[in-house]
User: Which sequence fits this backbone?
């Protein structure tokens, strides 16, 4: 433990979904909280969690879960807002109504458009990286969700990658005019979208972006800026 957070009661424990390799933390939503904690310079303890450990995070059903001493928080957005409220310095959310609404839109876009565009490309990679005890649960639950075997969710990776690049066009256009989605500094919009890329980086070697893409350069800037959160985790060079 390097630093004690001023505003948040310690100890902080973040439950993080990992693959067979405990350093392969891959949940995009956990990544958001990781990045917010790094953004604020807050230290925490990480606990590896796997899908079949549901009882450990009860009453939550999904990670991220953050334990702040005796308080248990769930939902990446709510956890991030809680951290922001306790550490208003270097804000990641907007204090003005219009800014907050636009950010809500961007977060929903990352969840409802970007994430589903990425999912078919990397779902088999996720499966292949899972701990053995998680594989049956993941297969059954995802095959139910998609209505087909995992192996048939994506039958044409290059076509899905092209579609993904197309879906990213609004982000591309924004980043060709601005250094960060947050403008002069990264905000939760950058964090939400980088979280999705960190999910892919953790499990998959697929080349999602061309080097000439403005998003490629931004992604590298984000990875450099938040290197402290990424160091020591397993992932592929992008
Ligand atoms: N809306 C939630 C979504 C969290 C979520 O979907 N977490 C996944 C990992 S990426 C999970 O824990 N899934 C458990 C399961 O599928 O059983 C948030 O933003 O925190």
Assistant:
């Amino acid at each position: 433990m390097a630093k004690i957070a001023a505003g948040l009661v310690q100890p902080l424990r973040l439950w993080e979904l990992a693959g067979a390799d405990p350093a392969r933390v891959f949940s995009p939503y956990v990544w958001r909280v990781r990045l917010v904690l790094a953004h604020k310079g807050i230290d925490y303890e990480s606990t590896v969690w796997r899908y079949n450990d549901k009882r450990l995070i009860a009453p939550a059903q999904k990670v991220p879960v953050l334990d702040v001493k005796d308080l248990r928080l769930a939902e990446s957005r709510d956890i991030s807002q809680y951290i922001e409220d306790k550490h208003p310095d270097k804000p990641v959310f907007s204090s003005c109504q219009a800014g907050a609404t636009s950010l809500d839109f961007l977060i929903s876009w990352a969840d409802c458009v970007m994430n589903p565009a990425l999912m078919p490309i990397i779902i088999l990679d996720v499966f292949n990286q899972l701990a053995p005890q998680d594989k049956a649960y993941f297969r059954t639950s995802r095959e139910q969700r998609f209505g087909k075997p995992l192996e048939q969710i994506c039958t044409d990776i290059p076509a899905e990658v092209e579609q993904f690049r197309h879906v990213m066009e609004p982000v591309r256009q924004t980043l060709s005019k601005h250094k960060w989605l947050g403008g002069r500094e990264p905000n939760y919009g950058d964090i939400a979208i980088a979280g999705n890329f960190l999910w892919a980086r953790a499990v998959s070697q697929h080349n999602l972006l061309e080097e000439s893409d403005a998003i490629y350069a931004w992604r590298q800037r984000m990875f450099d800026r938040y290197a402290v959160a990424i160091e020591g985790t397993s992932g592929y060079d992008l």
Summary: Residues 17, 27-29, 51, 62-64, 75-77, 141 surround glutathione (CB under 6 Å). Residues 1-5 have pLDDT under 50 and may be disordered. The first helix runs from residue 28 to 40.
